[in-house]
Amino acid sequence: MASLPPPQNDSNENENLKLTDDIQLTSNAVSDDRWKISWGFISARPHEYLIHIRNGKLVRKTTGQANRCFKRPNDTVIIIPTSLKQLIFHASQLTLDNIFIRLRGFVIYRISQPEKIYERISFWDRQSGEKKLARMIGEQCRSHSKWLVANMTLEDCLRKRKEAIADSLLKELALVITEENFGVEIESIDIQDIKIFEETLFMAYQSPAKEIIFKNQQLSVLERKRDVRTRELLQEQEMTENEKETRLSVLAKEVQINQAEREKLEIEIQAKRLMERNQAEHTRALIDFEEGQKRIQRQRDAALKREIELAEQQLAKQKADLELEIMRARYQVDASLSPVAMEKLFLEKALPQIANAVATSLKDARVTIYQGQDGGGLPLSLVVNEVMTTLQSRLERLNSTDS
Question: Of 16, 191, 276, 378, whose Cβ has the fewest other Cβ atoms within 10 Å?
């Protein structure tokens, strides 16, 4: 069994990418010699489609994406890449207003049905097959884009290159290189650059835009200056108005403060006057109250004095009446009582009063009694003893008389 040789890069790979001066394939696959072996196993990579033909017929079992087959000496094995390819094309053409321009665009495509493309383009040599397909697509794009540019003005080419050129190319290629016939799917077409060859025309074309830009720039500068000046004037006006408002507010506050001070002063004066008036009224009321109290006290004193005088008069009268009654009673007693009754009355009534009077008179007196060895004393003790004996005998006699 023959071994699979390692992939080898083509030494002229960079030159092969450039198909013509106006067409370039930028995503070319790496070339290898897998298809050159006479017999052995051949495997396709994940982005490749393997087609196995034996005795002029397609072997379905070993044909497919990333498939593997055993090649016999009479077998044919084709490996077709199914990954995305990018093609760059250029086209130079006079516009409708006779300005020579050169455009640059790109096409992204892929082989979606390899079993159809290998019937129309030979992929026996893989690099050669990819170049043929890329050149065919690139020429179609160049031809149709030149026709489009010839019927458009420069302004339309610059402003409408997406919808007027790129979309039209995509529709035209979809009619020519269809997926049903060629097995190729066009993913995207776009116009990258449009360049004016003559420098003077390019500058002349740019000059109105530059003038407009310059005018717009000057206008923007003037507008900015005007806005700045307007803001400054507004700020000054606001500051002036603020100063006026501040001054007016200060004056209003000063007026309010002065008014408050005047009101406060008036309140203090009124309070002082009220206090003085209240104090004068209080003093007057106090004087009136004191005079009233004195008058009442004098009246009370006079009434009390009259009552005392009246009571003294009544007492004197009662005393005189009592003394008169006593005298009358005494005369009656003297006339009615016997000597014994008089003595008894004296002992029961008069003698205690005499004793009380003597005790009262001797209340603050100091008496010193000296007693001798024989039991004798001073004459006072003798007098007292004699009086007590006499009183005792009198009392016994009166008691016997009563009994």
Answer: 276
CA-to-CA dists, residue 95 to 103, 105, 106, 198, angstroms = 11, 17, 20, 13
pLDDT digits (tens, 9 = 90+) for 256-304: 888 888 888 888 888 888 888 888 888 888 888 888 888 888 888 888 8
User: pLDDT digits over 173-210, tens only?
Assistant: 888 888 888 889 888 899 888 888 777 776 766 667 66
CATH tag, 13-197: 3.30.479.30
Residue 344: count other Cβ atoms within 10 Å of its Cβ. Answer: 19
Nearest CA to 44 out of 96, 101, 84, 4 is that of 4
Can you give 242-261 as a three-state secondary structure string? HHHHHHHHHHHHHHHHHHHH
Domain residue spans of the chain = 13-197, 341-360+380-403
Reported pTM: 0.47
C-alpha of 272 from chain center: 53
Confidence of residue 4 (pLDDT cuts 50, 70, 90): very low
Q: For residue 111, is it left (φ>0), alpha (ψ between -120 and 50) or beta?
A: beta
